[in-house]
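BUG-174 | component: ligand-complex export | severity: low

The export step for heme C jobs runs without errors, but we want the raw record kept on the ticket for reference. Input record follows.
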Amino acid sequence: MKSATSLKLLAGFVALVLVAGGATFALSPGKNQGYAPAQPIPFSHQRHAGQFNIPCMYCHTTVEKSRHASVPAMNVCMNCHRLVKTESPYIKQLTESYDAGKPIPWIKVHDLPDFTFFNHKRHIARGVQCQTCHGDVQNMERIKQVAPLTMGWCVNCHRQPEYNAPTSCDTCHR
Ligand code: HEC
Ligand code: HEC
Ligand code: HEC
Ligand code: HEC
Ligand code: HEC
């Protein structure tokens, strides 16, 4: 049973690599390292998480409860910006989107290929800091992908004796 599953998994990968063809390069290690796209509103982590010391989980509420770390809904911003800095053109833009019920189209920065599985909750539960994987976000004017997010990067950490995390293929590929 176990080996059948592994075989299926391997066959899946072979198919994937074959089908992907030219696209394999797009998955090459470290492709997005250093990626720091301009966002539709220049939201600064340095200011909010650094200077004002707003806890990461005030905004990224699901990170310790689920696979995904949600990006905050606009009402979280409006808790403050209904009153704070309302004369700013960016806050006007934010308020208009909020009133129109149109979410801000934030550009996703960290993005693993669909055939991989990641789970925030398990890492947070083991005390791995956000900064270990995301860098010093509290000093970033604009979010940047600091880690390579390659398989080697994941597996190297899983192999560390202090973490002793699973390294079987189906941990991250299912
Ligand atoms: C806990 C309160 C608080 C929350 C929550 C908050 N902000 Fe802010 N934000 C501030 C403060 C305070 C400033 C600085 C105002 C100043 O410079 O006078 C600021 C500044 C800004 C600025 C810079 C405005 C300018 O023109 O200088 C932007 C843009 C911004 N916030 C966007 C957001 C967004 C988007 C969210 C939600 C994801 C958010 N903020 C959530 C308190 C908050
Ligand atoms: C006031 C709300 C707020 C706080 C506090 C906050 N963030 Fe964010 N975070 C956002 C918003 C909005 C975005 C999407 C826009 C962007 O990327 O700048 C975001 C994006 C991110 C991303 C990039 C997600 C992606 O697309 O890959 C990471 C990583 C992140 N935050 C980590 C953190 C960490 C770590 C902390 C604490 C040190 C933190 N955030 C504190 C609002 C917040
Ligand atoms: C073990 C490494 C690791 C740790 C620790 C970690 N992250 Fe992430 N984070 C990632 C990876 C990998 C992704 C991309 C996930 C994907 O594309 O499926 C990501 C994506 C995100 C995103 C984008 C939304 C999503 O879930 O794809 C946000 C926001 C984020 N992380 C915030 C945080 C915050 C806040 C913390 C700390 C409370 C944190 N992360 C801790 C590795 C980590
Ligand atoms: C800084 C070290 C570190 C990095 C980097 C890291 N992990 Fe982990 N990972 C851990 C630890 C610690 C655990 C928790 C093991 C446990 O709970 O026993 C874990 C658990 C997991 C689990 C849950 C395993 C299960 O049994 O359900 C998955 C899935 C996972 N990691 C995927 C990834 C992926 C994919 C990456 C790279 C994008 C990654 N990890 C990067 C340390 C790390
Ligand atoms: C701790 C998480 C983790 C484990 C364990 C893991 N992988 Fe991966 N794997 C990843 C991530 C993340 C990627 C995507 C990033 C990359 O291509 O480096 C990936 C990519 C791949 C790819 C695509 C490579 C490419 O360049 O397109 C293959 C094939 C693969 N893994 C096979 C395996 C096999 C076989 C095993 C078991 C021996 C395994 N993986 C174990 C996280 C993991």
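Assignee comment: Attached the raw record above. The two ends are 15 Å apart (CA to CA).
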